[in-house]
Design a protein that fits this description.
- About 25% of the residues lie in helices and about 30% in strands.
- It is α/β, with parallel strands linked by helices.
- Strands 2-3-1-5-4-6-7 form a 7-stranded mixed sheet, with helices on one face.
- The two termini are about 25 Å apart.
Amino acid sequence: MDQHDVVRVHLFVSEEEVGEVEGAFTEIGVRGRKLSAHGSAPLAEVLFAGSASLTAVGHLIVALRRHFKRGVVVDALSRDGVTIKSDRSIPRGMVIIRSQDGTVEVRDAEGIGQALIGAMANAASQGERSCTESIAPPESEDASA
């Protein structure tokens, strides 16, 4: 998997973080759908689902790191994509990246892109499922985050 491969992105946030996420999506140019997340993740009320290149996801994580009032967890355990959540137990500005092989990296802005590419490349090498499938309904012309 290289940095131009498209991966599925699921970003779970509270209602109070929606503005920051929409700002980050716009800043990076990531298109996605905003859906209700009630019952799907603890403390998450909104799900942003979309697809982006690994490079764009890396930029998105850096932007979220600036926008969120708490730390960011990037879960690349699935070979299908990444799940991103804010976590109040992690200091603001810190990013935790979990790879499918169990590796956990703690980062600040330095090296997030390379760590993400490594985590996703590791996940992609574990299976052959598509990286572009998503739980999001098909996008219409006017649907964007």
